[in-house]
Amino acid sequence: QPQWKFHLAFEDAAGAKDTIWFVWDSTATTGLDSILGEYTMSMPNDTFQVYMYYNWYVDSIKTFALPPFFTSIGRYVYAVNHTYPIKMSWDTSLFTDPALPFQVQCADFQNNWTPADDNFNMLETDSVTLPVFFCGGDTCEHFPLYVRIEKDNCSVGINEHKKPDFLSVYPNPSNNKITVH
Q1: 48 backbone dihedrals φ, ψ, rounded to 5°
Q2: How far apart are the C-alpha atoms of 33 and 163, rounded to whole Å?
Q3: What is d(CA 146, CA 119) in angstroms, rounded to the nearest whole number?
Q4: How buried is residue 9: exposed, middle or buried, by Cβ count under 10 Å (0-12/13-18/19+)?
Q5: Residue-wise pLDDT tens digits, 99-145
Q6: Nearest 5°: CA angle at 76, between 66 and 91?
Q7: Residue 112, Cβ neighbours under 10 Å: how many?
Q8: Tens digits of per-residue pLDDT, 67-92?
């Protein structure tokens, strides 16, 4: 059992589902660690599949594992045979799991076609219907997505997508009276 295992679950509009995994474990190496579920595979051409590449567009993997001295995991995620829209979900509580070697300060994703300051903060919610991205006036695919989980703070982009704030408390600080809105 890995020390820390994090999943991204995908479901397309036709109900097809697939999952990928990120792992931090003290036994992980920078090579393939089959004991942690990290091995190359061929992608079937007739079913919905979500995957990452291990070696530059050659070997497909479903799990990416690193030892904890790497304080950042970042991978491009690809998909085949899908129907839009696609819902992506994860377990936000895993970012505070005591098995993590450090506190996660950044967990986000962005589409390959968007500017670097247009990302989605995964620390604030546990699912999203992947947003529609535009490139050169055309609607582009959701994939590839660049997913990043790390110890350091994310640089917050001006176009960051986040869940809306439904509660505000003011003034802060207060001496005797507050307003909840």
Answers
A1: -65, 125
A2: 36
A3: 9
A4: middle
A5: 888 899 999 988 765 555 568 889 989 999 886 655 555 555 678 88
A6: 65
A7: 16
A8: 999 999 999 998 888 888 899 999 99
Q: Which is it for strands 169-170 and 179-180: parallel, antiparallel or unpaired?
A: antiparallel
- Give the distance from CA 1 to its chain's centroid: 21
Q: What pLDDT shows up at residue 152?
A: 86
Torsion of CA 160, 163, 167, 168, to 10 degrees: 0
Report the predicted TM-score, pTM, of the whole model to 2 decimal places.
0.80
Half-sphere exposure of 115 (CA within 13 A, CB side): 10
Q: What is the percent of the chain where pLDDT is above 90?
A: 48
For 64, phi and psi rounded to 5 degrees?
-125, 120
Long-range contacts made by residues 36-44, C-beta under 8 angstroms, separation at least 24? 36/2, 36/63, 36/65, 37/2, 37/62, 37/63, 37/65, 38/63, 38/64, 38/65, 39/63, 43/80
Question: Is the torsion defined by CA of 168, 171, 172, 177 positive or negative?
Answer: negative
Q: Per-residue b/e over 19-42, b at no fewer than 16 CB within 10 Å? A: ebbbbbbeebeeebbeebebeeee
